[in-house]
Amino acid sequence: MVFKFVQAKETDKEYLLELRKMTMTEHLERAGQFLSEKQHFERINYKFEYSYLVFHSNELIGTVKYHGKTNQVQLTQIQISPRHQGKGYGSGIVQQIVDSESPKTVKLSVLKGSPAVNFYKNLGFKIVGEDTYEYHMQN
C-alpha cells in the first residue's frame, strides 16, 4: 500500500475539524475530556505546518500529522475517515512513516482506553510513559 501525503492548507481546516470530531470525540469523552469546537480547532492548529491530507488511490482517506528531528519522529495525529477504517490504512500509513524515516525512533501519545493503544502495540510500539490522559509510546 502506498499513500500520498499532501500538505494541508487553511482551506482544509473544516474537513479536519469534521474528521477530528467523527474520530476523536467518543474517545476523548470516555477519557473525561469534553472539548468545545474552539478546543478542537486549537488542536488542529497545533503544529499545523506538519499536517498532511492522506490519499490512497487518489481518494482522500484521512489525515496525519508528524515531523522529524535528527534522530526521532513525533507522530502527533493520525485519523482515518470512518468509512475507510478497518482496511489496514492506519497500519500502512504508520509503516510508511516508519520506513521513510528509518532508522529513527517514532514517538507518539495515545489516549488511555482508546483502541489505538492496541493498534500501536500490534505495530511494535511500547508504552514508555504516561500522564493523566495519555500513554506515551515509541517503536
Oligomeric state, counting identical vs distinct chains: single chain
The main β sheet shows up as:
7 strands, mixed
Strand content: 25-35%
Query: Cα-atom Rg, whole angstroms?
Result: 14 Å
- The total of helices stands at 4
Which spans have pLDDT < 50 for at least 5 consecutive residues?
none
- Class from helix and strand fractions: alpha+beta
Shape: globular
CATH top level assignment: Alpha Beta
Mean pLDDT: 93
The first-to-last residue Cα distance is 21 Å
Q: What's the structural domain tally?
A: 1
Count every beta strand, where a strand is a DSSP E run of 2 or more residues. 7
CATH architectural label = 3-Layer(aba) Sandwich
Helical content class: 25-40%
The helix/strand series, from N terminus to C terminus, equals EHHEEEHEHEE
Q: Write out the strand line-up for the largest beta sheet, numbering strands in chain order.
A: 1-2-3-4-5-7-6
CATH topology-level fold name:
Aminopeptidase
So, the CATH homologous superfamily?
Gcn5-related N-acetyltransferase (GNAT)
